[in-house]
């Protein structure tokens, strides 16, 4: 991009590059955005009707939104997703932040091995995690319980917290803790008053990642959840596989709005974390 | 251990213990399941004892028949006979019905000789092969599932041979998974590199916006994105509609873009693209733009300057992104399951099939064990090449 773009060859190259990138961005974003208008379809179709294209007001409606708001199964699914998501996030964030504090200490023994173990749930194929968890949690009587899913999702969410908090701590000036200690503060006080405020953006974005991971997880839920633990993604899965109804487009639109919110929050946190003068 | 070391280790201990119990032990359970199966051994102990010294060819003798009759009857009462039958059936196809029917019909007989009774119920009890299958299924510890998972089998004489051609599916499946994942990785690199370049060298404000466009799919629910592709690509979907409206396709000539391998590749490339863009972008951002200008002022055209100066410096990002995309691709389940149809299924989908439909959990465990080994190797490579502590999110 910063080529000396005086010669025509470079300019053509630049235009081609921009055109290609425009196509790739279309590929990335258009599939997500196309869902939004389709969710207002008055007909039970997954495509634009002629009326919609003519902008005929009768072709557009809120019927699918009405359906998901009044439908008990969607409401229950949202409740389950929020409960499992919040509980597993609290667990993952607490354990993950503690572990990241230990991992960031230069004195940590077997650091690489520990890190490898703690990040492994993130790269292990979900189908394998789900298979193993199904076998093991069944023997403990934890399959088809909320507790089982909370524990499973917490395990899958901790790597995100470990990674973001370790990253936040790597930018942390250790002189600050040393200064606090020399002034007589005990480790807990140092953590609360010096470290936590500075790494808070990392902790919160780790928590958001963990929540998003749980909120979107469906494979473990497919294997372990009973009728009472159906989550939003599980309900969508059924909606795609069994009875395709545009109601799932309305749910999808909600989830897209939620994704935008998460994205903006994490971006804001990162800019706070990077901010100079911290 | 020094005191600071102890203090650091103590902080990681709760999570290590938690991951151990909630994650590592379950994986170990799966691996144990893939080599250990006590169902037949527990249900037919006396039968198996009677077969222990049998030569594998002749008639196993009245003692074996009597034990089998007694234990099949008991298995039926305890409702385990279905599980016993399916395991024997996996060793030798067609025996499920023999076992289940024998359990049911044996109730009508009050006494032996049991050889005559069993032969009257089903003549196949007279085949040595039937008894060999019972004996093989009775092994608690078995490599059978792993042999199965690589299209091999153990013949009655103990030698190892390939499965008959119509049952050779898993080696091809593993290959397909690896090749498709490699293709998706290459596609992600092809699409991700120019985008990362654009963002890395754009003015800050615009770069932030463009990065947001890459991150939006990253944060959007996977099921939402998969639904989008169904909406777009199905035969009555948006893409086909547009092509028909433009006159590029006849209305009866709509193309199948989904529920096949095309659907899997397109949707998975979309899902995994951000994982390529982010590491490549963060490496590119650190390359000073003056370098390319310097190369140009020294007379190198763009291709030459790019290949000699720029590309080599981005290789670590390319390696990190490619490994991550490849690792995630080979274990992918949801997208192929929803948009892959028959031909677009990968190894994960067969694990799910054996878990949920065929209920051959041992084979599911063995396929999972093989997939896990592949991922473990790649994970170690990632740690070597990139370093886990340099992993960043978003």
What can you tell me about this protein's structure?
The complex is a heterodimer of chains A (278) and B (394). Chain A contains 12 helices and no strands. Chain A is an all-alpha fold and 278 residues long. Chain A folds into 2 domains: 8-59, no CATH class; 72-244, Orthogonal Bundle (MetI-like fold). Chain B is mostly helical and 394 residues long. Chain B has 2 domains: 39-140, no CATH class; 170-390, MetI-like fold (Orthogonal Bundle), CATH 1.10.3720.10. Helix content of chain B is 70%, strand content 2%. Chain B is built from 19 helices and 2 strands. In chain B, helix 4 (62-77) packs across helix 6 and helix 5 runs antiparallel to helix 6 (95-105). Chain B is elongated and about 100 Å long. The two termini of chain B are 36 Å apart. At the A-B interface, helix 1, helix 4, helix 5, helix 6 and helix 7 of A face helix 1, helix 10, helix 11, helix 12 and helix 14 of B.
Which structural traits does this protein have?
heterodimer, A: 278 residues, mainly alpha, MetI-like fold, 0% strand, B: 394 residues, two-stranded antiparallel sheet, 2 strands, 70% helix
Mean pLDDT of chain A: 88
Please state the second-level CATH architecture of the largest domain in chain A: Orthogonal Bundle
* Beta-strand share of residues of chain A: under 5%
Count of β-strands of chain A: 0
Q: What's the story with the biggest beta sheet of chain B?
A: 2 strands, antiparallel
SS summary, helix count of chain B: 19
The CATH superfamily of the largest domain in chain A appears as MetI-like
How far the N terminus sits from the C terminus of chain B, by CA atoms, comes to: 36 Å
CATH class of the largest domain in chain A, named Mainly Alpha
Secondary-structure map with pairings?
The complex is a heterodimer of chains A (278) and B (394).
Chain A: H1 8-38, H2 50-53, H3 63-70, H4 72-103, H5 111-123, H6 126-139, H7 146-170, H8 174-182, H9 187-216, H10 219-224, H11 232-241, H12 247-274
Chain B: H1 3-35, H2 39-43, H3 45-51, H4 62-77, H5 81-91, H6 95-105, H7 114-121, H8 128-137, H9 144-149, E1 152-154, E2 160-162, H10 170-200, H11 204-219, H12 222-233, H13 238-245, H14 261-284, H15 290-297, H16 302-330, H17 334-339, H18 347-356, H19 361-385
Antiparallel strand pairs in B: 1-2
Helix pairs in contact in B: 1-19, 3-4, 4-6, 5-6, 5-8, 10-14, 10-16, 11-14, 12-14, 14-16, 15-16, 16-19, 18-19
């Amino acid at each position: 991009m910063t080529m000396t773009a005086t010669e025509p060859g470079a300019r053509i190259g630049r235009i081609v590059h921009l055109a290609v990138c425009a196509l790739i961005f279309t590929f990335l974003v258009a599939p997500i955005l196309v869902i939004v208008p389709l969710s207002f379809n008055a007909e039970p179709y997954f495509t634009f009707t002629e009326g919609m294209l003519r902008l005929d007001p009768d072709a557009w409606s809120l019927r699918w939104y009405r359906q998901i708001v009044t439908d008990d199964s969607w409401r229950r699914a949202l409740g389950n997703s929020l409960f499992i998501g919040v509980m597993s996030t609290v667990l993952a964030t607490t354990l993950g932040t503690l572990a990241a504090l230990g991992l960031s200490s230069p004195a940590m023994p077997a650091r690489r091995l520990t890190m490898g173990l703690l990040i492994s749930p993130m790269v292990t194929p979900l189908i394998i995690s789900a298979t193993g968890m199904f076998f093991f949690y069944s023997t403990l009587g934890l399959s088809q319980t909320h507790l089982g899913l909370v524990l499973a999702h917490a395990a899958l969410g901790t790597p995100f917290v470990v990674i973001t908090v370790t990253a936040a701590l790597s930018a942390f000036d250790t002189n600050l803790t040393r200064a606090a200690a020399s002034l007589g503060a005990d480790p807990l006080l140092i953590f609360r008053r010096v470290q936590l405020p500075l790494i808070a953006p990392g902790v919160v974005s780790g928590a958001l990642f963990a929540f998003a991971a749980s909120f979107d997880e469906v494979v473990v839920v497919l294997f372990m959840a009973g009728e009472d633990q159906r989550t939003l993604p599980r309900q969508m899965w059924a909606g795609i596989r069994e009875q395709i109804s545009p109601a799932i487009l309305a749910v999808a639109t909600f989830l897209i709005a939620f994704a935008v919110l998460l994205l903006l929050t994490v971006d804001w946190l990162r800019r706070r974390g990077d901010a100079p003068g911290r | 251990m020094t005191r600071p070391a102890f203090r650091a280790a103590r902080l990681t201990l709760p999570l290590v213990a938690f991951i151990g119990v909630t994650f590592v032990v379950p994986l170990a359970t799966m691996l144990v399941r893939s080599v250990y199966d006590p169902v037949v051994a527990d249900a037919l102990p006396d039968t198996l004892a009677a077969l222990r010294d049998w030569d594998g060819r002749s008639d196993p003798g009245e003692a074996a028949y009597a034990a089998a009759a007694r234990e099949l009857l008991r298995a039926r009462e305890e409702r385990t006979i279905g599980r016993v039958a399916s395991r024997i059936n996996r060793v030798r196809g067609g025996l499920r019905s023999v076992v289940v029917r024998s359990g049911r019909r044996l109730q009508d007989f009050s006494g032996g000789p049991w050889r005559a009774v069993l032969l009257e119920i089903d003549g196949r009890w007279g085949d040595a092969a039937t008894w060999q299958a019972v004996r093989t299924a009775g092994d608690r510890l078995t490599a059978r599932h792993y042999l199965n998972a690589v299209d091999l089998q153990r013949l009655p004489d103990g030698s190892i041979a390939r499965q008959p051609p119509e049952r050779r599916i898993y080696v091809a499946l593993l290959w397909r998974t690896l090749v498709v994942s490699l293709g998706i990785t290459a596609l992600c690199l092809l699409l991700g590199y120019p985008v990362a370049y654009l963002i890395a060298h754009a003015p800050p404000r615009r770069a932030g916006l463009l990065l947001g466009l890459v991150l939006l799919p990253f944060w959007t629910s996977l099921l939402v994105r998969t639904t989008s592709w169904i909406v777009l690509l199905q035969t009555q979907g948006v893409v086909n509609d547009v092509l028909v409206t433009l006159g590029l396709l006849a209305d009866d000539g709509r193309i199948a873009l989904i529920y096949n391998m095309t659907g899997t590749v397109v949707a998975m490339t979309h899902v995994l693209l951000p994982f390529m863009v982010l590491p490549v972008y963060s490496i590119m951002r650190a390359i000073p733009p003056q370098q390319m200008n310097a190369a140009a002022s020294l007379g190198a055209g763009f291709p030459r300057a790019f290949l000699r100066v720029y590309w080599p410096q981005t290789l670590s990002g390319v390696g990190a992104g490619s490994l991550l995309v490849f690792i995630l691709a080979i274990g992918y389940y949801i997208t192929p399951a929803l948009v892959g149809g028959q031909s677009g299924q990968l190894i994960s989908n067969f694990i799910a099939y054996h878990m949920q439909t065929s209920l051959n959990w041992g084979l599911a465990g063995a396929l999972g064990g093989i997939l896990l080994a592949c991922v473990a190797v790649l994970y170690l490579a990632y740690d070597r090449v990139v370093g886990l502590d340099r992993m960043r999110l978003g």
